[in-house]
Automatic annotation (TrEMBL):
It comes from Dactylococcopsis salina (strain PCC 8305). Residues 23-267 form the ABC transporter domain. InterPro entries: AAA+_ATPase, ABC_transporter-like_ATP-bd, ABC_transporter-like_CS, ABC_transporter_ATP-bind, NO3_transporter_ATP-bd-like, P-loop_NTPase. It is a peripheral membrane protein. GO terms for cellular component: plasma membrane. SMART domains: AAA. GO terms for molecular function: ATP binding; ATP hydrolysis activity; nitrate transmembrane transporter activity. Pfam families: ABC_tran. This is Nitrate transport ATP-binding subunits C and D. It is found in: Cell inner membrane. Transmembrane segments: none annotated.
Length: 294
């Protein structure tokens, strides 16, 4: 894979963390302010502050595949957006390799659920656009090589000139993955990347992600609602409690050897025990959410 060079202004002061830790979240809290302006008061539509995340502390090691799972509305995507630099925590510290992170940066690539492709650009144009944005001084020859390598990586050779409307949902998401990987990020962030796909396409892309991860061994953090998806892909699974004030309930270690095949994972002696534990957690937290609405 072609290496990139760029100036990254998203990192600042250094802090003490272990060498094996790539990402460290220390006391991350996120509060969304309520409506308290004079117009809201006049219309009697005021609302209190909403605490989405409460003192989230995590250490994520280099080259691990980590999934975040929890009931709907527990702040999974909010947490991922904070890691991506798209949102700021109300309090707490986010460190990468011991340096404080502030705002987005090319050290983190993001794959969206809705693909977020430029509709007027071809497959290679979408990937090249990411490279031009991150590394504008990259020689054209190197840029073309990086585009070609990443198109091959996600299995889209032959579709380079096609536009998003000419591609299936699975192919569009592969473009999104290639675009995120083209900038050679240290960490790949994925927000329910297969949520909009049919079951067969979803299963195929899960296996493709396993293959790509096994080749590149990047640190991956993925938000998902699927227990089976988390068990197939992850080294660790972060189970979050319900909101408001969501916290980390437990972190599961996934013992399945790599490289992984779905049929081997599903027949592993620990598979059913881990699946049951996750199901019970989600059922308990979801039931509590429903009771709170009564």
């Amino acid at each position: 894979m072609s290496s990139l060079s760029y100036n990254d202004n998203s990192v600042s002061a250094v802090a003490e963390v272990g060498d094996e830790i790539q990402l460290s979240l220390q006391g991350i809290t996120k509060v969304f302010p309520g409506k308290k302006d004079w117009m809201s008061k006049l219309l009697r539509r005021t609302s209190p502050d909403f605490m989405a995340l409460d003192e989230i502390s995590l250490d994520i090691k280099h080259n691990k595949f980590v999934s975040i799972i929890g009931p709907s509305g527990c702040g999974k995507s909010t947490l991922l957006n904070i890691i991506a630099g798209l949102a700021s925590p109300s309090s707490g510290t986010l460190l990468m390799n011991g340096y404080s992170l502030e705002g987005p940066g090319p050290d983190r690539g993001l794959v969206f659920q809705n693909y977020a492709l430029m509709p007027w650009m071809s497959v290679e144009g979408n990937i090249a656009f990411a490279l031009e944005t991150v590394a504008p001084t990259m020689p054209k020859v190197q840029q073309k090589r990086a585009v070609k390598e990443n198109i091959e990586l996600v299995g889209l050779t032959g579709a380079e000139k096609k536009h998003p409307h000419e591609l299936s949902g699975g192919m569009q998401q592969r473009v999104g993955i290639a675009r995120a990987l083209a900038i050679n990020p240290q960490v790949l962030l994925m927000d329910e990347p297969f949520g909009a796909l049919d079951a067969l396409t979803r299963g195929f892309l899960q296996e493709e992600i396993e293959r790509i991860w096994d080749q590149q061994r990047k640190t991956v953090i993925m938000v998902t609602h699927s227990i089976e998806e988390a068990l197939l892909l992850s080294d660790e699974i972060i189970m979050m409690t319900r909101g408001p004030g969501a916290q980390v309930d437990e972190i599961l270690e996934v013992p399945f050897p790599r490289p992984r095949k779905r049929e081997e994972v599903e027949t592993h002696p620990e598979y059913n025990n881990l699946k049951l534990e996750m199901e019970q957690h989600l059922y308990r937290e979801t039931r509590a959410v429903e009771k709170s609405r009564l």
